[in-house]
Write a structure and sequence with these properties.
The protein has helices at 8-39, 48-55, 62-69, 73-85, 107-128, 133-150, and strands at residues 60-61, 89-94, 97-105. It is mainly alpha-helical.
Length: 151
């Protein structure tokens, strides 16, 4: 029979962690929807991760986006088309392969995403200002470690 210090404790801790991760995931989806609306009120929230990936690059091949986002080519095409109709992304020629196209933020898309990012980071800084900086660093480290085991 497991005692509270022995075998049962890891199971209880894992169950508590699972509940918190699921709660964080739900909050994250809500945050993603709000972030998408901040970029453009008509932007489908499922397109927001695409914009974030493009923010950190000049342009990305569709094959690379498919791998990182973990979605099908047809799904990615619909998301690119949707964001493209809003003037946020565009397809550009691949300088290394005349047959291929890359996906990039438009200057307007980059501007809007940066405005949203600045506001989001301001809110994070305001909320985390009450925390000990070492706690914030430790949380970031632990979340990275958790992400590693979830892959």
């Amino acid at each position: 029979m497991p005692d509270s210090v022995g075998e049962a404790a890891p199971g209880v801790a894992a169950a508590a962690l699972e509940r918190e991760v699921l709660a964080l995931w739900r909050r994250g989806r809500s945050h993603m929807a709000a972030s998408a609306r901040a970029v453009d009120p008509k932007l489908d929230p499922v397109c927001y991760p695409l914009l974030v990936l493009l923010r950190d690059a000049d342009a990305i091949a569709m094959a690379d986006l498919i791998g990182v986002l973990g979605i099908e080519k047809s799904t990615l095409t619909r998301r690119i088309d949707s964001a493209g109709r809003l003037g946020l992304v565009e397809r550009i020629p691949d300088p290394y392969d005349a047959r291929a196209r890359l996906v990039a933020l438009t200057p307007e898309g980059r501007r809007r995403l940066e405005e949203q990012r600045v506001e989001t980071f301001r809110r994070w800084r305001d909320r985390l200002a009450l925390w000990d900086p070492d706690d914030v660093r430790q949380l970031a480290t632990l979340m990275h470690r958790l992400g590693d085991i979830l892959d």
